[in-house]
Write a structure and sequence with these properties.
Blueprint: E1 5-12, E2 16-19, H1 20-24, H2 31-38, E3 42-45, H3 52-67, E4 76-80, H4 91-99, E5 105-109, H5 115-129, E6 134-142, H6 152-155, E7 160-168, E8 181-189, E9 197-199, E10 212-214, H7 216-238, E11 247-250, H8 255-265, H9 276-279, H10 286-296, E12 305-312, E13 316-323
Parallel strand pairs: 4-5, 4-6, 11-12
Antiparallel strand pairs: 1-7, 2-3, 6-7, 8-13, 9-10, 12-13
Length: about 325
């Protein structure tokens, strides 16, 4: 039996778009510098009335509409975020209440940029055990709220947004590599790399939210090695060839990381979905955002074999192979 099936996808972006040129008016940088090193040309930044919960709810509603199912059929919400509305309760419970499906399971997952992959695996596991029948898996972030806007090495990299999928429990007929569903997932973490990408605040340490801090070159090297390794791990476990993969939907951190990872595995560049130029790095939201974009523009179709992958602070990283 395969894993849970994706019934629909959705996404939401803040109204405000901030270009590289606008950022260059605030910090010592330029459009040419940002584009050449990251591939980013613009990002969306949340306004005062936009929060992680409001973006997550909008993405969830879009996914429900795409799937053609009612919110009352959802009995599990797993929301991946590093920027919750509150320390507690979980932002997932706010989304649950907004959708009107109270009473089921709802909680947040904190694995930063790998959060959606972690959330997807957790939801899939719960659906397989029968704890729930239908889930919303959401990645949502307002990273602009934890950026140091004087630090040009980090503030140019991130944006805000949300993406969601409706996940249905696997059926008894959902078997074989050609049947829709999650074929294989693998997750990893390495806490020894904490100081390479982190936020310098938290309730039990500084009693503040803090700001993102990153050692870019070191993160780049780890990302290429770790992502290539986990992708190979999933491919081998699923028993498929690299050539059989129709699309790779990666975490949108940096165009150079996407290129280097694809080359390391021998994946054709035209099979890689890229949205980093429009969205920048939206952390846990980036994979579901890119997945929704590629489905809505017609690239990813029913029956396609799709690889999702991400790496983030922690370090955490993972990949999932899905038959759409």
């Amino acid at each position: 039996m395969n894993g849970s099936r994706i019934l629909g996808t959705g996404s939401a972006l803040p109204r405000r778009v901030v270009t590289n040129a606008e950022l260059a008016e605030r910090v010592d940088t330029s459009d040419e510098w940002i584009t050449a090193r990251t591939g980013i040309r613009q990002r969306h930044v949340a306004g005062p009335d936009e929060t992680t919960a409001t973006l997550a709810t909008a993405a969830a509603r879009a996914a429900l509409a795409d799937a053609g199912v009612d919110a009352t059929s959802i009995d599990l919400i797993v929301l991946a975020t590093a920027t919750p509305d509150n320390t507690f309760p979980a932002t997932a419970t706010k989304v649950q209440d907004s959708l009107g499906c109270n009473g089921g399971i709802a909680f947040d997952v904190a694995a930063v940029c790998s959060g959606f992959l972690y959330a997807l695996s957790v939801a899939d596991s719960l659906l397989k055990t029968g704890m729930a029948k239908r889930a919303l898996v959401i990645g949502a972030e307002t990273f602009s709220r934890i950026l140091d806007w004087e630090d040009r090495t980090t503030c140019v990299l991130f944006g805000d947004g949300a993406g969601a999928v409706v996940l249905d429990a696997p059926g008894t007929d959902n078997a074989g590599k050609d049947a829709p569903g999650i074929l294989c997932s693998r997750l990893h973490a390495d806490g020894a790399q904490h100081d390479l990408l982190y936020v310098d605040g938290g309730p039990s340490t500084t009693q503040t939210v803090g700001h993102v801090r990153m050692k870019g070159p070191e993160v780049f090297r780890h990302a290429v090695v770790n992502l290539a390794a986990v992708l190979r791990e999933v491919i081998d476990e699923a028993g498929v060839s690299v050539d059989a993969i129709d699309w790779v939907v990666p975490h949108q951190a940096n165009a150079r990381i996407l290129d280097a990872t694809a080359k390391k595995l021998g994946i054709a560049p035209d099979k890689v979905v890229i949205t980093v130029d429009r969205h920048a790095n939206t952390s846990a939201a980036s994979v579901p955002l890119a997945l929704d974009v590629a489905r809505k523009d017609g690239r990813i179709k029913a029956g396609d074999l799709v690889m999702l992958e991400a790496m983030g602070g922690g370090f955490t990283w993972g990949a999932s192979l899905i038959r759409m």
